[in-house]
């Protein structure tokens, strides 16, 4: 039996996925979630074979959290579902070891097949997503600069970013100034737009 955790914020979509998986005799959904903050605690509690996660539910530091989870529970394979593969995020996810990436508009049988493949130790990466990820130029920013910019993109203020990353507000401002310079951006908002358009956020 393949134990699956499903994290999808849209209730109707989550219900459709649950109904689909319920038809499979070798797949059991051990948890279904609609809130980002519940993902990691639920994975630790249920220890599923495969965690199917909606990409929109990943917070800016969500991939970092998943990476730390790999060290803690290497037996859980992760399948990311997305409507809009952001190349930079896809590349980062592939680099940290996410086992699967699939478009949400893929045929239902492809999701079921992907879960079985992941449970068997194989990787499942949508060809178009992979191609887009590797054709996108690498960002001229460091990992820390990208992290600060991602948090800025969510509307976090400098003091909040500083607290979250255990930095001083002055250091955060210095990172943002460097980001603006590297991207030839006029403002922080402009920097976020440039990085988003390039697929780095």
From TrEMBL:
Pfam families: GerE, Response_reg
PROSITE patterns: HTH_LUXR_2, RESPONSE_REGULATORY
Domain of life: Bacteria
A GO biological process held by the record: regulation of DNA-templated transcription
Keywords, alphabetical: DNA-binding, Phosphoprotein
Occurrences of domain Response regulatory (ranges): 3-119
Domain called HTH luxR-type: residue spans: 134-199
GO molecular function: DNA binding
Record has Phosphoprotein as a keyword: yes
Modified residues (4-aspartylphosphate): 54
PANTHER family: TRANSCRIPTIONAL REGULATORY PROTEIN DESR (PTHR43214:SF42), TWO-COMPONENT RESPONSE REGULATOR (PTHR43214)
Protein name: Putative two-component response regulator
Native species: Streptomyces griseoloalbus
């Amino acid at each position: 039996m393949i134990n699956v955790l499903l994290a999808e914020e849209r209730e109707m979509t989550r219900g459709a996925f649950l109904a689909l998986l319920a038809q499979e005799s070798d797949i059991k959904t051990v948890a279904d979630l609609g809130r980002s903050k519940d993902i990691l605690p639920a994975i630790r509690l249920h220890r599923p074979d495969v965690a199917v996660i909606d990409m929109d539910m990943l917070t800016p530091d969500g991939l970092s959290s998943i990476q730390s989870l790999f060290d803690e529970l290497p037996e859980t394979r992760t399948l990311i579902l997305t409507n809009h593969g952001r190349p930079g995020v896809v590349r980062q996810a592939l680099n940290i070891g996410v086992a699967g990436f699939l478009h949400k508009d893929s045929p239902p049988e492809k999701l079921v097949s992907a879960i079985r493949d992941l449970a068997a130790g194989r990787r499942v990466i949508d060809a178009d997503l992979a191609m887009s990820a590797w054709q996108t130029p690498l960002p001229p920013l460091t990992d820390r600069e990208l992290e600060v910019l991602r948090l800025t993109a969510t509307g976090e203020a400098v003091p909040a970013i500083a607290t979250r990353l255990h930095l001083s507000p002055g250091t955060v401002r210095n990172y943002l100034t460097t980001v603006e310079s590297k991207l030839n951006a006029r403002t922080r908002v402009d920097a976020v737009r440039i990085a988003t358009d390039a697929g780095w956020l």
